[in-house]
Amino acid sequence: MIGDLEPGAFDAITDVAGVRVGHTTIVHGEDVRTGVTVVVPPDLPVFAAPFRLNGNGEVTGLQWMHESGLLTTPIALTNTHSVGAVHEALVGAAVADDRSNWSLPVVAETWDGILNDVNGFHVRPEHATAALDSASTGPVAEGNVGGGTGMICHGFKGGIGTASRLTGKYTVGVLVQANHGSRRRLTIAGVQVGAMIGPERVPLPPRRGRPEGAGSIVAIVATDAPLTAQQCRALALRSMLGVGRTGGAGEHSSGDFGLAFSTAATERLEPVAMEELDPLFYAVIDATEEAIVNSLLAAETMTGRGGATVHALEASVLKDVLSL
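The structure assignment produced for this chain is given below.
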């Protein structure tokens, strides 16, 4: 466990009461390795805010979130060229529920084009709808699932990871789609493990013209603490400190975004006092770091587009280098 705060029962974002997660994983043939993940708050709208560490990426719906301080839709994660299809599905879900005559969904992306035929548009609206329909509380599948199916993290197979922390009063949960970072910078529990694992032990993935560290990460933070939008932004920002602790640097070629929301009712809100936010900050940082590590340890070696193979970080290998 990372840090001194205890995790919740599932060590997942779903430890925040009512939060649901759903995945659709799309793997077929030699070249298709992709999918959709959704995070669904228990009620909408909720106070929320984003933070951008580096902007080589896309998260739709942020202008309205900046303006209103509200999250009004579920959050979806997918690959770069499938944002439109997933966006269409979330609008369709809002229309079907008769919630509104308009919808500005939040859809975030990271690029899976090493392992996946990203230009094949294999994610369709019905895949996002299926992820929404499957969203549930309880344990969350990690690694090569949903939007994380074809992702690479710090030169190992990455993907979806999640973790949670209890502050005593409140619960904080984080879910990441990890597709960022360089091997040599990977740091876990303060140890630069990536630099200690040579390519002769765990081969590096192909780059296909991309610089080391290219990629993106999206961190979704949920909490039951009653927070204003401004306070949510402070939590979203701290998720990027967790990214930094594992060696992420917000490289020029990376898109690194945090988004935090509070499940507390927006009406008659009595927010946490500013001087009492520090435990929530610590919880976000530790949970983000652990979520990234969990994405690595849950992932499995994958061969995809054009025969490209990305190897997993085996728990035994990590244990060996941490014991040196």
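Interim note for the steering committee: The helical segments are 62-68, 83-96, 125-134, 193-196, 229-245, 278-298, 315-322. The longest strand covers residues 171-181.
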